[in-house]
């Protein structure tokens, strides 16, 4: 066999050279014999008998089970790269293999038991060149087996190697050869060594999981042969006529006759000798079995066979030996030691069973002696034999000597002996005794002697699609039987069956039809009784309607979208004796098209009187007509297809109105006659020449009953069908068959199937389907989805299926084979498959290959058998007719036209009498009196099996569409004036011919491509534009792609004498390349356009600067997206800027024809064919672009994706550096300032609305409750949180209406928007409005169903049962989240990136059932596939795909809540109450503060003040509180100091009381008995709210530690806890003494996970350090003196060992710092994202001295400061500063409101911006006053005064940022603020900073031109070094075009060189230099 060509392909090109029933006997069921049998079966031979002496097959590949484990005694292992035949057989039989990676190969000392590994790889490599040289020499010699190398490698091995300048055989090669039983290398011709080396050790070594014998057992059981085990061959006698074999089995002697015999046993070796034995010792034979000829005796007498033993021994004392193969070197090298074991093997770890291999000599060294020598060796090695389990003797490796080989032994054997006397030999002598060589040789011998490779076979024959039949494939479909008390009646019409089952007591209320949606859920149903009733209602309306009057026999169009309304109408027509005409419902919004043209023609030709439809569809048609009328004003409307001017009748309305009708008055009109027309069935694919087949009642019911019998359908049938219900296969074959049988059917739309192909299988599994059917393309589509989604379909069960038809178009064997292979694990049997044949002219069904227990059969061309032929069958008679002579072809295998005679046949075409006569009324001379229908199909009959081979009529099926040549030819002729009319042929050309010519066809094209051959006029120049016009017109008119267009010279097309086109001759000329083609002139070359940046839109536009053409490169995804948008714009007229990449083509109104048209153009653009189904099923433009990009990478791998060789002007990825005028920059900066006002309006207006609503309500309430003042206070307190919730809702709505609608940009992955553009300003405005509102308001919705609603309102597409615990979702319109996704706290989902002054977008898609861990970052363009899991602090890079991994086990004992976290009615109520309670607690704290104030100031309670306090407490955010104040009051304190003190006191007192209330409330919830999900969630919400509203300003102080202790956390002494996150379950946190938690570190005691809420205890022991932005997950234990570096993760249930330094987020890099020895450092398991240099640098920075502990011990005064002074400074001073900044603007607003009577809502946004600007200036002043300028390299103690003041300023910065400046980040004004605080920032050119983390140490930050800092990035100008608690400062420099990604961390001293990038969530270590790529 040719190892480079797949075995299946090699057999597909061969035909049997002998009749398929030739009697072939095979002696021996070992690998050679069974491989020969396999090859014979593949060729189609059907009479094969295998004789085996032993009880099982496998020969020397013997496997035995010992103590529950399988051991291979003979053949054991195979190499991946050199055993293609065995691997092919393993795949065919689904045999499992396992790798032997841990299998040792060593040399062992037989006296001591010590072993040493040998260098196998090096040894084999040393002989590889010689092996390859020999292989190259014999490559084309046309010889097989050892014969191929016998001439060139016949010298003895030592001589041969010496001649090739090699000293000897490498040790491991020689040992492997000898140990395997092939003798000693010095004795052997090198030819045998070569066969060994080329097969052994090439690639990974594997063995069969269940033993080698299991493979051969499966093959023997699966092959269609007669296997006779325990059968001894007594004699073989041969002559020229055949072979006689005498056998003995179970003491029974039998004589068998064969035509050919294949010998794979040891019969011919009687005359041979034993290797290394006495010269006279021959192999023992009692009698002569075979009548050997002189030549056989001469040749076989030269053969030697090795006496080889396998001994299995149980040994004690050698358990220490690893699993492996051990060579005894001394016995290997010395032939005189024969009998001693040459090798031993330990098969399994933990076992004391060993295998020993030894040689004997057949005389004095035999079985017992071999065993004794093995025992002695064992004892010498220190082992003790417990038991000798078994021993096998093999007469192994027949071979000849060097001289015999030189004398032509193999030449004589192959040329003279093989085939002589009908005998063939296979086995080790010919092949070399290796399983792969034996199998390969046996198959090659069969192909050489039993097959030929001519194009045509010698005789007709068939073969099985599956040569190997598995148990599942052998299983016959089960018989269904009828329901109890149900008998099938014999009734005359379809309507009579509906009446019968509709009134039958068993079936009346049984569901007949269920219609399901895309999710598989039923949306409508019909019982038999309901359908019977509905049809009567419709019949009554039809016969009684007056507009129009409809009489029996009139015809009506049935125009229905897929659904059950169609079925009601159809049966209503039958009951009224009105003739229904079902048609394909066209897209009601389309302008023109094939379907509408067909409707016009049908209505005219059939005298249609009305159209039956639904109200909804008719309304859509009216809307579409109006739209098209407007669109075509002024155009030539005569050429457009129109709806017929007929009345529309709405049957769904009739049914709804008739539910209460009593139908007893309906007159029964009696059953129609069998010959009456039942309905008209129009053939698909026709337009101008529509042909309607007249189906009679008798013909229809006969066909349905015939199908019922053939399908074995009963009242227990459960049909699943998605097939179109308006045409034959879906209507008659599906709906009617299930009804007549009394069964049930589950139905869904063809469009649903196209979108979700696997839904078909899922529904069949769910509903336990018994019957279904589909065309070939549907199975192709399912195969593709099964292969891509195979991991998602573990629960399918298809074992209930008894019938699955493949029909309606040519059935492809590869499709059937692959489908069965993929679905057999789900219980699908091959015998369920029913390839069928049918046509509309015979109703639908003709025949199918089903029901006789036969496998799927192919003919020699690979055509699938589609039915069984029986000329005596009265139901259907099939004949093959010569289309020219019209005489029957009775010889098997002859191809001709298929004619059928059946009572099912239609009676003709409506209105086409002449054509009807020609088609339906034909007679055969030899069968007079029978009428036959001409099918126009070509076929052949072989052995009473029908095969469809082609078509004689002008119908071509391409991609499941029926295409009439004449129709397409008319379109082609009118596409261009240069084509000659009447001189065009449209033909279908087989796929293999097109492929051979380099013409590709997309998948699913049904083995045929459409080719146009057309003549051109004389003297007309022809360009490629003509060809493009032809292709385009064909796509537009017929919805099919053209594979090739050939333009030929005038008057050269083949025609008949009558002038008709000879299409068959055209196909032949196309195939032979004999067409008279004309030269095609060049198309004018379009110059490539350059791209310039538009500053008005920021989008890239076309320029006029041409450049040199770039080398051809792979088309980028961005280019594909742009092209697709252009296609949509071209077809719909929609602007490209208004087309979203998150929508699909059909959402823009493009119908199926438009999709095909787009497919044609897309294929041309890609230069790679693509299927229309792929375009149609793509969920969005972006997904389609991804698919195309992947397709290009597979189909055009030679094209480079590296654009480095592309000129810069044409490189699609070029960064555009643009120069902007100063005036334009100034204008953009002004716009950004105005945008701040607009943001303020968007955010302030909902707050003002909420406050006024609250005031009006409380005012109204006070009037109602006059006399009960305490009720006023209670109402104010109760409804303040409601006003807060109203503010949330109205803010979301306001942003959605006035933000997204007005500011939303064109989200396009190809867009590149300059930050100096108006589009950027608009986007930034929306972005900031969404960000601020989410952080202030939506943060309180975390974990609730309301947060999902929040982001959906902002534009995100979110599935059901999604749990969101993060508010950091930017650009929601670009985010798509599937069902049941869980996104944990802190996750950043960012769909944009600003880099080098350019803004780019890319959508993010998160597949269903995915889970994203805490603080992960999902970047633009990311696609997270279904079921994927993103771990904590991981990033998904731009455009990265994440797939579902193997099941992760985090090893933690999870606390999974018993209540599933999914959206229910109770969840909504609970979540609302939880949010309300958060606001209520804050309001209550404010009220208590107010009561305390009135008590100590002796002020009376004021209802107005009380209401303000309530709502101010609920809102809490300072801007909203001031909005409430300005709305409610008309005066402000005149003293700014007094105002600031009051302002500060109020907030501090409120915060203090809120902490107390939070502590009390959470403890109350915790101590309650029933701990529910709601209580756990509520505790988290309340704690989070308290942290955000007040406690976070205490971070870094001892007061913050006390706060955590109050909440239940265990906090040690002298801890430094910086700006950490809000800890959800503080009681689970334990912090030791001297611990430092760095800025923005995250302690996660509990988070939401895919399976629920996961929580666990976290313990951080003394003196440990948690770096900035690091995450500690539940269950973590951080032992003493541990340092967890920045951006690192302590994984769930992990232990960070004492004294270690850990860094990394996937697997920590570990540096062991021993307390005793600081230099004891080592690194292991380092994270791939972090270099070892970084880790070592970190270790140096965090290194400890021997004499100094890592501790943060404070003096008493430092402790006092941390407990009192620092908390006061960090809370009082920030509020004082802000109070002073707010005072003047607030006074101004109140004055204008009261004195000038200006509307307050216009003043509030201006106030906010003005006060924010003043606050930012105050922050700048505070910075220079409190902190001053820090210096790089300066070191300060962590408890020093400097750090205290710095922490105070950081608190001021934080409060000012929250008040206003957060809103400016990303703008020019934020950069100005940075500059004022000391940052060295380039103010002139496009610096972008979107993070307050850049201001931690502003004077340490330097950012040059176009430098960008992403969201929440941290630029640490300081680092905690751990030496006595010191802080060191250092400068951070971001060079020109430098980029710091979102949440990246840069430590002091970091430098980003020009153009360099620090990616998102990346860490730049201290002093690190980031270089440009």
TrEMBL record:
Organism the protein comes from? Vigna unguiculata
Q: What range(s) does the Carrier domain occupy?
A: 1118-1192
Tell me which PANTHER family the record gives: AMP-BINDING ENZYME (PTHR22754:SF41), DISCO-INTERACTING PROTEIN 2 DIP2 -RELATED (PTHR22754)
- Pfam families noted in UniProt: Amino_oxidase, AMP-binding, PP-binding
Q: Which UniProt keywords apply?
A: Membrane, Phosphopantetheine, Phosphoprotein, Transmembrane, Transmembrane helix
Alphabetized GO MF terms:
oxidoreductase activity
List where this protein forms a coiled coil.
none
- Protein name as catalogued: AMP-binding domain-containing protein
| GO BP terms, alphabetized | lipid biosynthetic process
Cross-referenced CDD domains, in alphabetical order? FAAL
């Amino acid at each position: 066999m040719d190892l480079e060509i797949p075995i299946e392909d090699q057999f597909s090109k061969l035909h049997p050279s002998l009749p398929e029933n030739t009697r072939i006997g095979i002696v021996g069921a070992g690998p050679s014999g069974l491989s020969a049998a396999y090859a014979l079966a593949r060729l189609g031979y059907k009479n094969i008998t295998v004789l085996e002496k032993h009880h099982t097959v496998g020969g020397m590949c013997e496997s035995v089970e010992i103590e529950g484990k399988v051991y291979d005694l003979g053949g054991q292992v195979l190499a991946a790269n050199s055993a293609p035949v065995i691997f092919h057989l393993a795949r065919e039989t689904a045999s499992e293999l396992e790798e032997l990676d841990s299998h040792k190969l060593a040399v062992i000392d037989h006296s001591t038991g010590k072993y040493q590994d040998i260098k196998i790889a090096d040894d084999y490599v040393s002989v590889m060149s010689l092996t390859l040289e020999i292989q190259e020499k014999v490559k084309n010699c046309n010889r097989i087996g050892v014969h191929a190398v016998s001439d060139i490698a016949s010298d003895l091995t030592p001589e041969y190697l010496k001649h090739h300048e090699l000293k000897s055989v490498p040790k491991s090669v020689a040992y492997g050869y000898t140990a395997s039983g092939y003798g000693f290398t010095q004795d052997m011709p090198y030819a045998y060594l070569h066969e060994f080396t080329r097969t052994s050790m090439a690639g990974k070594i594997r063995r069969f999981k269940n033993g080698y014998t299991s493979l051969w057992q499966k093959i023997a059981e699966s092959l269609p042969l007669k296997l006779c085990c325990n059968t001894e061959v007594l004699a073989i006698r041969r002559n020229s006529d055949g072979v006689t074999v005498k056998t003995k089995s179970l003491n029974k002697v039998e004589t068998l006759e064969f035509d050919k015999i294949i010998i794979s046993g040891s019969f011919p070796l009687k005359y041979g000798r034993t290797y290394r034995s006495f010269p006279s010792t021959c192999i023992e034979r009692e009698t002569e079995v075979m009548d050997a000829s002189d030549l056989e005796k001469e040749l076989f007498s030269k053969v030697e066979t090795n006496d080889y033993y396998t001994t299995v021994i149980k040994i004690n004392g050698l358990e220490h030996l690893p699993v492996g193969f051990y060579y005894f070197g001394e016995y290997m090298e010395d032939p005189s030691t024969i009998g001693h074991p040459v090798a031993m093997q330990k098969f399994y770890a933990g076992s004391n069973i060993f295998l020993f291999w030894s040689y004997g000599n057949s005389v004095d060294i035999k079985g017992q002696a071999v065993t004794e020598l093995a025992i002695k060796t064992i004892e010498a090695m220190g082992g003790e034999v417990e038991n000798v389990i078994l021993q096998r003797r093999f007469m192994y490796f027949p071979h000849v000597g060097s001289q015999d080989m030189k004398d032509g032994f193999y030449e004589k054997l192959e040329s003279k002996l093989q085939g002589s006397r009908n005998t063939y030999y296979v086995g080790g002598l010919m092949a070399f005794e290796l399983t792969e060589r034996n199998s390969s040789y046996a198959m090659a011998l069969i192909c050489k002697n039993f097959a030929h490779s001519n194009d045509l076979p010698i005789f007709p024959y068939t073969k099985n699609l599956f040569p190997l039949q598995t148990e599942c494939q052998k299983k016959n479909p089960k018989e269904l039987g009828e329901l109890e008390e149900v008998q099938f009646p014999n009734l005359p019409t379809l309507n009579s069956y509906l009446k019968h089952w509709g009134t039958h007591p068993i079936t009346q209320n049984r569901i007949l039809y269920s219609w399901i949606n895309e999710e598989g859920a039923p949306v409508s149903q019909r019982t038999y009784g309901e359908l019977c009733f509905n049809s009567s209602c419709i019949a009554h309306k039809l016969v009684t309607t007056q507009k129009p009057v409809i009489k029996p026999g009139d015809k009506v169009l049935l125009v229905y979208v897929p659904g059950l309304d169609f079925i009601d109408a159809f049966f209503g027509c039958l009951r009224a004796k009105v003739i229904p005409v079902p048609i394909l419902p066209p897209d009601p919004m389309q302008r023109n098209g094939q379907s509408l043209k067909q409707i016009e023609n049908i209505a005219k030709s059939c005298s249609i009187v009305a159209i039956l439809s639904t109200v909804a569809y008719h309304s859509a048609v009216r809307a579409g007509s109006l739209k098209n009328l407007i669109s075509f004003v002024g155009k030539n409307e005569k050429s457009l297809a129109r709806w017929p001017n007929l009345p529309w009748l709405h049957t769904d309305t009739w049914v709804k109105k008739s539910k209460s009708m009593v139908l007893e008055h309906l007159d029964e009109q009696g059953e129609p006659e069998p010959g009456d027309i039942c309905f008209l069935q129009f053939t698909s694919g026709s337009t101008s020449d529509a042909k309607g087949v007249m189906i009679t009642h008798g013909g229809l019911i006969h066909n349905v009953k015939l199908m019922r019998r053939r399908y074995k359908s009963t009242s227990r049938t459960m049909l699943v069908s998605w097939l179109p219900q308006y045409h034959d296969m879906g209507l008659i074959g599906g709906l009617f068959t299930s009804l007549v049988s009394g069964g049930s059917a589950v139905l869904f739309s063809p469009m649903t199937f196209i979108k979700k192909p696997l839904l078909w299988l899922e529904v069949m599994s769910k509903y336990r389907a018994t019957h279904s059917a589909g065309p070939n393309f549907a199975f192709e589509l399912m195969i593709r989805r099964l292969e891509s989604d195979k991991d998602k379909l573990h629960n399918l069960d298809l074992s209930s299926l008894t019938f699955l038809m493949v029909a309606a178009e040519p059935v492809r064997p590869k499709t059937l084979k692959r489908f069965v292979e993929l679905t057999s694990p789900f219980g699908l049997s091959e015998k369920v498959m029913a390839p069928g044949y049918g046509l509309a002219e015979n109703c639908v069904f003709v025949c199918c290959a089903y029901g006789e227990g036969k496998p799927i059969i192919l003919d020699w061309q690979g055509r699938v058998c589609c039915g069984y032929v029986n000329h005596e069958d009265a139901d259907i008679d099939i004949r093959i007719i010569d289309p020219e002579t019209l005489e029957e072809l009775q010889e098997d295998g002859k191809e001709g036209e298929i004619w059928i005679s059946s009572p099912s046949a239609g009676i003709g075409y409506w209105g086409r009498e002449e054509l009807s006569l020609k088609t339906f009324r034909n007679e055969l001379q030899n069968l007079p009196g029978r009428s036959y229908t001409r099918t126009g199909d070509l076929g052949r009959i072989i052995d009473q099996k029908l095969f469809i081979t082609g078509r004689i009529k002008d119908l071509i099926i391409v991609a499941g569409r029926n295409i009439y040549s004449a129709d397409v030819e008319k379109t082609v002729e009118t596409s261009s004036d240069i084509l000659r009319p009447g001189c065009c042929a449209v033909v279908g050309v087989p796929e293999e011919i097109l492929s051979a010519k380099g013409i590709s066809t997309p998948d699913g094209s049904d083995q045929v491509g459409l080719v146009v051959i057309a003549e051109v006029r004389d003297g007309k120049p022809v360009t490629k534009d003509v060809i493009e016009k032809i292709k385009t017109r064909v796509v537009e008119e017929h919805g099919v792609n053209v594979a090739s267009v050939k333009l030929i010279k005038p008057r050269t097309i083949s025609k008949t004498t009558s002038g008709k086109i000879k299409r068959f001759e055209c196909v032949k000329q196309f195939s032979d390349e004999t067409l008279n083609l004309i030269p095609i002139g060049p198309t004018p070359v379009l110059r490539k356009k350059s791209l310039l940046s538009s500053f008005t839109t920021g989008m890239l536009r076309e320029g006029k600067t041409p450049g040199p053409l770039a080398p051809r490169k792979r088309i980028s995804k961005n280019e594909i997206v742009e092209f697709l948008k252009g296609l949509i714009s071209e077809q719909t007229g929609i602007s490209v800027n208004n087309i979203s990449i998150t929508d699909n083509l059909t959402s823009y109104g493009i119908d199926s024809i438009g999709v095909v048209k787009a497919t044609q153009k897309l294929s041309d653009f890609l230069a790679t064919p693509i299927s229309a189904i792929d375009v149609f099923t793509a969920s969005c433009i972006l997904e389609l672009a991804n698919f195309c990009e992947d397709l290009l990478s597979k189909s055009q791998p030679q094209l480079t994706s590296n654009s480095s060789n592309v000129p810069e002007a044409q490189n699609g990825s070029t960064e555009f550096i643009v120069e902007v005028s100063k005036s334009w920059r100034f204008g953009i900066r002004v716009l950004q300032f105005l945008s701040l006002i607009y943001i303020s309006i968007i955010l302030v207006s909902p707050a003002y609305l909420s406050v006024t609503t609250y005031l009006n309500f409380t005012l109204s309430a006070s009037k109602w409750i006059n006399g009960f003042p305490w009720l006023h206070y209670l109402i104010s307190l109760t409804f303040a949180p409601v006003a807060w919730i109203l503010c949330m809702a109205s803010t979301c709505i306001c942003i959605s209406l006035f933000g997204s609608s007005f500011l939303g940009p064109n989200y396009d992955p190809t867009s590149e928007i300059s930050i100096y553009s108006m589009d950027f300003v608009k986007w930034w405005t929306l972005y900031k409005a969404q960000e601020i509102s989410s952080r202030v308001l939506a943060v309180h919705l975390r974990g609730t169903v309301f947060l999902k609603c929040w982001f959906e309102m902002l534009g995100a597409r979110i599935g059901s049962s999604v749990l969101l615990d993060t508010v950091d979702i930017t650009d929601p319109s670009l985010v798509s989240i599937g069902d049941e996704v869980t996104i944990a706290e802190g996750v950043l989902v960012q769909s944009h990136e600003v880099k080098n002054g350019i803004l780019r977008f890319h959508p993010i898609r998160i597949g269903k059932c995915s889970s994203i861990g805490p603080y992960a970052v999902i970047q633009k363009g990311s696609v997270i596939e279904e079921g994927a899991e993103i771990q904590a602090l991981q990033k998904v890079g731009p455009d990265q795909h994440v797939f579902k991994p193997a099941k992760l086990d985090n090893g933690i004992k999870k606390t999974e809540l018993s209540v599933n976290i999914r959206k229910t009615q109770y969840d909504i109520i609970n979540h609302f109450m939880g949010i309300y309670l958060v606001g209520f607690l804050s309001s209550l704290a404010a009220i208590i503060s107010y009561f305390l104030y009135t008590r100590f100031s002796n002020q009376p309670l004021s209802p107005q003040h009380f209401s303000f306090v309530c709502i101010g407490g609920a809102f809490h955010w300072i801007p909203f509180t001031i909005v409430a104040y300005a709305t409610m009051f008309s005066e402000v304190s005149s003293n700014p100091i007094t105002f600031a003190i009051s302002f500060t006191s109020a907030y501090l007192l409120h915060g203090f009381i809120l902490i107390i209330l939070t502590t009390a409330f959470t403890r109350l919830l915790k101590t309650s008995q029933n701990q529910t999900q709601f209580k756990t969630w509520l505790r988290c919400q309340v704690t989070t709210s308290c942290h955000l509203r007040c406690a976070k300003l205490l971070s870094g102080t001892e007061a913050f530690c006390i706060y955590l202790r109050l909440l239940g956390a265990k906090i040690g002494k002298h801890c430094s806890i910086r700006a950490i996150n809000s800890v959800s379950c503080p009681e689970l946190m334990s912090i030791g003494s001297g611990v430092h938690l760095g800025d923005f570190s995250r302690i996660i005691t509990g988070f939401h996970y895919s399976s629920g809420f996961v929580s666990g205890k976290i313990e951080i022991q003394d003196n440990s350090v948690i770096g900035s932005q690091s995450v500690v997950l539940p269950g973590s234990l951080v032992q003493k003196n541990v340092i967890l570096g920045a951006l690192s993760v302590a994984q769930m249930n992990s232990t960070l060992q004492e004294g270690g330094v850990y860094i990394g987020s996937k697997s920590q890099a570990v540096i062991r710092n021993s307390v005793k020895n600081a230099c004891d450092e080592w690194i292991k398991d380092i994270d791939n994202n972090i270099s070892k240099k970084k880790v070592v640098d970190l270790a140096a920075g965090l290194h400890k001295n021997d004499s100094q502990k890592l501790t943060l011990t404070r003096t008493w005064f430092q402790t006092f400061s941390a407990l009192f002074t620092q908390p006061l400074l960090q809370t009082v001073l920030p509020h004082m500063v802000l109070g002073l900044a707010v005072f003047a603007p607030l006074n101004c607003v109140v004055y204008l409101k009261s004195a000038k009577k200006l509307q307050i809502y216009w003043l509030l946004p201006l106030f906010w911006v003005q006060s924010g600007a003043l606050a930012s200036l105050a922050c700048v002043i505070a910075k220079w006053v409190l902190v001053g300028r820090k210096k790089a390299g300066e070191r300060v103690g962590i408890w020093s005064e400097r750090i205290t003041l710095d922490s105070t300023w950081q608190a001021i910065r934080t409060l000012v940022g929250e008040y206003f400046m957060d809103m400016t980040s990303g703008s020019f004004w934020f950069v100005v603020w940075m500059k004022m605080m000391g940052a060295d920032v380039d103010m002139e050119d496009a610096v972008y900073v979107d993070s307050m983390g850049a201001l931690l140490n502003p004077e340490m930050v330097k950012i040059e031109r176009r430098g960008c800092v992403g969201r929440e990035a941290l630029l640490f100008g300081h680092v905690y070094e751990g030496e006595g608690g010191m802080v060191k400062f250092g400068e951070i420099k971001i060079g020109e075009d430098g980029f710091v990604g979102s949440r990246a961390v840069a430590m002091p001293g970091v430098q980003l060189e020009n153009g360099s990038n620090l990616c998102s969530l990346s860490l730049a270590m201290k002093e690190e230099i980031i270089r440009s790529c």
